[in-house]
């Protein structure tokens, strides 16, 4: 669980920028991810994409679905499938909490970023999120534009 922890996350490989626009982000969890050797090599190259991915609960486990880690070019026949489901590593209590939130409250599990931590381990920042309606998205854009304009006005005055 990432509460009050500064965002010193090491090398960010993939960032889901649309998630904060499309979803109201709730609690976030730092999870490990089960990868093969060629997937790690490809991630170190920084070519992953999690823009259309989500996490799903199956058989008491959390899986990252639709994340695209392209094939590693130097690995010939031992390469991996780019969009295969990947298991996320969480404590049982966290898995139960996430599964119950998804089932009861209609929440969604959204990956925010994939990064390497200080020890060189691949991690996924997973968020418990609720989808925004169209009017909420417009309100968010309006607030963001106003904050930007306010900053410009204060900077020009001072």
TrEMBL record:
Q: Does the keyword RNA-binding apply?
A: yes
Key words, A-Z:
Cytoplasm, RNA-binding
Question: Which residues constitute the signal peptide according to the record?
Answer: none
In the record, biological process GO terms are: trans-translation; trans-translation-dependent protein tagging
Q: One matching Pfam family, short form?
A: SmpB
One cellular component (GO) term of this entry: cytosol
Q: Which domain of life is it from?
A: Bacteria
Region annotated Disordered sits at 132-158
Annotated InterPro entries: SmpB (IPR023620), SsrA-bd_prot (IPR000037), SsrA-bd_prot_CS (IPR020081)
Q: Which PROSITE patterns does the record cross-reference, listed alphabetically?
A: SSRP
Which GO molecular function entries does the Swiss-Prot or TrEMBL record give?
Answer: RNA binding
Intracellular or extracellular location(s): Cytoplasm
Task: Name residues in a coiled coil.
Answer: none
- The biased composition feature labelled Basic and acidic residues covers 136-158
User: What role does this protein play?
Assistant: Required for rescue of stalled ribosomes mediated by trans-translation. Binds to transfer-messenger RNA (tmRNA), required for stable association of tmRNA with ribosomes. tmRNA and SmpB together mimic tRNA shape, replacing the anticodon stem-loop with SmpB. tmRNA is encoded by the ssrA gene; the 2 termini fold to resemble tRNA(Ala) and it encodes a 'tag peptide', a short internal open reading frame. During trans-translation Ala-aminoacylated tmRNA acts like a tRNA, entering the A-site of stalled ribosomes, displacing the stalled mRNA.
Q: Which HAMAP family match?
A: SmpB
What's the family?
A: Belongs to the SmpB family.
Q: What is this protein called?
A: SsrA-binding protein
């Amino acid at each position: 669980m990432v509460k009050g922890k500064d965002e010193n996350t090491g090398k960010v490989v993939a960032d889901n920028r649309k998630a904060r626009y499309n979803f109201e982000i709730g609690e976030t969890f730092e999870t490990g991810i089960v990868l093969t050797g060629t997937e790690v090599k490809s991630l170190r190259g920084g070519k992953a994409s999690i823009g259309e991915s989500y996490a799903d609960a199956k058989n008491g486990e959390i899986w990252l679905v639709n994340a695209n880690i392209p094939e590693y070019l130097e690995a010939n026949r031992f390469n991996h499938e780019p969009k295969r489901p990947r298991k996320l590593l969480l404590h049982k209590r966290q898995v139960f909490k996430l599964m119950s939130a998804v089932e009861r409250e209609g929440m969604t599990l959204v990956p925010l970023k994939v990064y390497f931590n200080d020890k060189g381990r691949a991690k996924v920042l997973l968020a418990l999120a609720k989808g925004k309606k169209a009017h909420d998205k417009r309100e968010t854009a309006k607030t963001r534009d106003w904050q930007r304009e306010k900053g410009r006005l204060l900077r020009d005055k001072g």
